[in-house]
Each structure stands twice: as structure tokens, then as C-alpha cells.
């Protein structure tokens, strides 16, 4: 099952010439999930071939402008382009008021419904689930209410071994039970163990999106062992005091988060505009967690093929 993330924006606070504010798009089994929607996200979507019509779920971490100021434009374009299917919006509750007031004064009635699911800042909750994934909110520690999002694939059925099924003449009506791990009992009473007729499915994969937050171990257990961890790393560690006073994380600390939570791979993002190049941030995180990459615009990271 396809499970990959494409970076649309990697900048914190203000954009710079080659970096946009936060936004990412997940492709999970050909369904698109947008995470944060900083200013300019629509342009980035056009640039990288991401079709808005394929997005049915949008997740907004918090209400600092660098994470949602592109949302009104995107919602408006969806309306103008004739969208009628519902859109699910996972966000802090006040976002509804912000959207409503904009629509009110432009005398716009959207042609499609928005289903709001309000996140809560102090508790991990399951906020979405479909046949492919479960999404949990991650309580983060920022200046204002902020949650990350944890995307976990669901456990899959066992895989049928077609040659074995043919060899033992297993009737097709048993296939569903076999996928769930049940043994097959032939008409003559012979028991065929499930393991001889099926193989184990791939382990479910996971992606954690953690932005913005001060270094805090409160959410470590929730994100332990993820396959891919995106963590904000706004500053180098020589600006630790500034990171703490603004409730952000340094690149070194992001590496420590990945190490302590046993992530398989780390993506750094949410870079301060003060850094014209990002190699120092990458090198700093790598001193504690070598398998680290920069979540820069246009890059796609594959979690599963
Ligand atoms: Zn931010
Ligand atoms: Zn913020």
C-alpha cells in the first residue's frame, strides 16, 4: 500500500525566497491528506502536481499563521472549482469562527459541507479512521494550543498463498476466514494449518508529524517506534534559549527525540528564516541520530511502496 509524504512547505514563521510555511501532503493508498496549510500552499500544490479535488481530509496543528493562512484560499478555490463532496477539517475549535467570518463578509456560501473535528490540546485522541489508517492527535507543548498527528496503518489481513490453495483444493468461500487466520478443515477432516495456506502481512507503518513544540518528553511514549518521524527543528542548538522562550525545538533536540522514541528515520522541518542554508541543522541532528533528512519543498519520502 502506498504511504508517502511530500513536503510543500518547510519554513517557520515567515517564508523566504525558496521556502514556504508549513504544509505537507500524505498519499496513503492514493487518498491525499493535507497536514497544515501555510500561506502559498495552493501554489505549491500546483507546482508539485497535487490535486485539491483529491483531498478529503485536512489537519491543522494550531492557529499560528504559518500553519493555516493558506487554508481560506484553498477552501475558496475548492468552492470555485465546483466541489460538492464533504471536506473533513481537523483543527482547534476557533478555526471555525475564523473561516465563518471570512465567508460571511465575502457573502460566500460554500457549495460543499465542512465537517469539523475539533482537536483538544491536552489529550491524545483518535480523530479519524478509515479502512487504511487511524489518526491520533498528539498533544504538544507550544505557546498556544497545538497538536501533532500520528498516522498509523491498520493491521492487515494475512495473504493467501494461491499455489497452496489450489494444491489442497480449498473452496473459495473459505478465503475470507483464511485471511483472518482461521485453519481450513477439509471435507475428509484433514486440518490444514493457516500458516501453510497464508503468509503474514507486512507490519503496519506509521508517520508522526510533530510541529510546533518545545522539547518535551510528554508525547514520547505515543510516538515510540514510528517508521518516520517529522519533528520541528526551528533553530540550531546555540539558540537553545530562544527555542525555549518561543516554545520551539533545536535540531540537536529533534535528533534526541528520534533517538529516545526509537524512530526509524527522522525528518527535520520548520526552519527559521535566519538559516539561508540548512546543512548545519542537518549535521547537528545527525550527531545524535544519523538517519536524518531535511523535509524540504518538493521532496517525497516513502514510508511504504
Ligand atoms: Zn510554526
Ligand atoms: Zn507555532
Give a structural overview.
With 305 residues, the chain is of the alpha/beta class. It contains nine helices and 18 strands. It has helices at 41-47, 71-80, 94-105, 162-167, 175-179, 194-197, 240-245, 251-260, 279-286; strands at residues 3-9, 23-28, 31-37, 55-59, 87-91, 114-118, 126-129, 133-139, 147-153, 159-160, 184-185, 191-192, 198-199, 206-210, 228-232, 266-269, 292-294, 300-304. The strands form four sheets. The chain has a seven-stranded mixed beta sheet. A seven-stranded mixed beta sheet has the order 7-8-9-14-15-16-17, with helices on one face. The protein starts with a strand and ends with a strand. It binds zinc ion (2 copies). One zinc ion is lined by residues 62, 64, 142, 212.
Please describe the topology of this protein:
Layout: E1 3-9, E2 23-28, E3 31-37, H1 41-47, E4 55-59, H2 71-80, E5 87-91, H3 94-105, E6 114-118, E7 126-129, E8 133-139, E9 147-153, E10 159-160, H4 162-167, H5 175-179, E11 184-185, E12 191-192, H6 194-197, E13 198-199, E14 206-210, E15 228-232, H7 240-245, H8 251-260, E16 266-269, H9 279-286, E17 292-294, E18 300-304
Parallel strand pairs: 3-4, 4-5, 5-6, 14-15, 15-16, 16-17
Antiparallel strand pairs: 1-2, 1-18, 2-3, 7-8, 8-9, 9-14, 10-13, 11-12
Helix pairs in contact: 8-9
This protein binds zinc ion (2 copies).
